[in-house]
Specification:
The complex is a heterodimer of chains A (112) and B (392). Chain A is an alpha+beta fold. Chain A contains four helices and three strands. Chain A is globular. The two termini of chain A are 30 Å apart. The chains are: A alpha+beta (112), B mainly alpha (392). At the A-B interface, helix 3 and strand 3 of A face helix 2 and helix 4 of B.
Chain lengths: 112, 392
């Protein structure tokens, strides 16, 4: 199980990555994260929305209320161009961190 | 035999949603989104073969406990929470002025009814204005009523009325007016000298009642806070009442600022035929009122954290204090502008007789009031349209 701090730090790139694959709504995002991490990352569902709202305020994503397949309204989120740029930056950062740890923990492996 | 307590899923979900309304932290949009999420969770649980009650309980566990949700949404909605309070405060300022003008109306109409008075043209106009403003008041009350919980007329049942602070103040205001108006009217016909004295007294009765009501309601709220859980249906109503009263104090403070500056100009020019004594006493009173206002701002800053959530008081304290100061500065600017709007025509247009002077005061206040009303209405409309209004 991931620590709270790491879960919080990875939330923005995770959300942006999922949304870069297509628009989605809160419940679906949480399900995807749970499936991808095989249950290792567990967000308290209600905590996701304030993060989404913050990203929306920053202009990285937009939202729209739409009726889902079952006719019930859901708020769908979509990534913006600035969100894609932010995601690219996040990817760089996470790659750098991963590469650093790989070098530190496996000094004999040369990744380049 | 049927079970006495059947589990009503819809009712439970609405109850859960209403629990969040009371804190004044969530917007309608937030709650709609959380509710949609809860439905998704329940649907999945039901699909797994769980009974409705278990599905509901499991879904609640997964979505998060209410205190954590409130804390995280409060953090995200800081700006909106404060804007909501400011909005309520603004409505309070508005209600204060409405009550004041309502008094002017009743006072003047009282004179008509007795038939013994020759009212001055200024008073005639004030009466007309008062009627118009009373109509506006009804409109804004209606708007407020439509915005707040139980948005349909069907919610106008006793248990709901207590959650409509503006209605309550409207009723209290009318009661005050109905009590005092005959006395003032009677005084008008029996003593011309005392007429002015009672007129002046009337100026201060409503603010003084307001000032007394403010600390009393604060005290009651603090006392109740120990025994009333945050999810109590009266919780938001109580804190909003405080903000309404606070707004009234701000309105009174703005008015006192106007008076204070105006009488300073009197002291300078001695052109209005008023004795130094009365100018001094009104000035002194204005300063005392300003001091009380400042104290009210301080008290509000320290008390308001109690109405949010325990544990995060520090954060709110600072924002509340900043907001209080902002309102005070805003009131000061309004008073300053009103002073110029009033003093300049008096000086430039040579309207130095007391009649013209007071007429100018009336017109200045009318402009101030109309602009303020329009701002309140526009702001309210924008908040409703953008769905950023904190529900309660």
């Amino acid at each position: 199980m991931l620590t709270k701090d790491l879960t919080a730090a990875s939330s923005t790139p995770l959300i942006l990555t999922i949304l870069s694959q297509g628009e989605s709504y809160g419940y679906d995002i949480i399900k995807q994260v749970r499936d991808l991490s095989q249950g290792e990352i567990t967000w308290t569902d209600g905590m996701l929305y304030p993060i989404l709202h913050k990203l929306e305020k920053k202009g990285l994503i937009t939202s729209e209320w739409k009726a889902g397949e079952n006719g019930r309204r859901r708020k769908y989120y979509r990534i913006q161009e600035s969100g894609k740029q932010a995601l690219a930056k996040e990817k760089e950062n996470w790659h750098l961190i991963t590469s650093m740890f790989n070098q530190l923990w496996n000094p004999h492996i040369n990744l380049t | 035999m049927e079970p006495t307590h059947q589990f009503d899923l819809e009712k439970e979900i609405q109850g859960w949603r209403n629990g969040f309304k009371e804190q004044g932290i969530f917007t309608t949009d937030n709650l709609d989104e959380l509710e949609a999420h809860l439905y998704d969770l329940i649907e999945d649980q039901l699909a797994d073969g769980r009974d409705p009650k278990t599905a509901y309980d499991q879904a609640l566990l997964q979505i998060g406990d209410s205190n954590s949700l409130k804390a995280v949404y409060l953090d995200a909605n800081q700006g909106q929470v404060w804007r909501h309070r400011l909005w309520i405060t603004m409505l309070g300022v508005w209600v204060f002025f409405v009550l004041y003008w309502g008094w002017v109306t009743t006072y003047s109409l009282g004179g008509y009814i007795t038939g013994f008075l020759n009212l001055s043209p200024t008073l005639d106009r004030m009466a007309g204005l008062g009627v118009s403003l009373s109509i506006l008041m009804v409109l804004i009350l209606l708007m407020h009523y439509l915005v707040f919980p139980g948005r349909s007329l069907a919610s106008l049942i006793p248990s709901r009325i207590s959650r409509q602070p503006l209605w309550l103040f409207g009723i209290v205001g009318l009661l005050i007016l109905s009590f005092f108006a005959p006395i003032w009217s009677w005084e008008l016909v029996t003593s011309d000298i005392r007429n002015r004295a009672y007129w002046s007294m009337g100026w201060y009765i409503i603010p003084v009642i307001w000032m007394l009501a403010y600390p009393v309601s604060l005290w009651l709220s603090i006392r109740k806070q120990e025994t009333t859980p945050p999810s109590s249906p009266t919780y938001l109503w109580r804190s909003e009442t405080i903000y309404l009263l606070f707004g009234g104090l701000m309105g009174f403070g703005g008015k006192m600022l106007i008076e204070c500056l105006a009488f300073l100009s009197i002291m300078g020019s001695i052109q209005f035929g008023m004795g130094f004594d009365s100018a001094y006493s009104i000035m002194l009173l204005s300063f005392v009122c300003l001091l009380l206002l400042f104290l009210a701002v301080c008290v509000n800053s320290y008390v308001s954290p109690l109405f949010i959530l325990p544990g995060i008081q520090k954060k709110i304290l600072s924002s509340s204090y900043r907001g209080g100061i902002a309102i005070l500065i805003g009131g000061g600017i309004a008073g300053f502008l009103s002073f110029f709007a009033r003093a300049i025509p008096s000086q430039i247009l040579n309207m130095r007789q007391s009649g013209s002077y007071f007429q100018t005061i009336a017109y200045t206040e009318i402009i101030f009031f109309v602009v303020f009303s329009l701002l309140t209405l526009i702001w309210s409309y924008r908040r409703i349209r953008n769905r950023t209004l904190i529900v309660g």
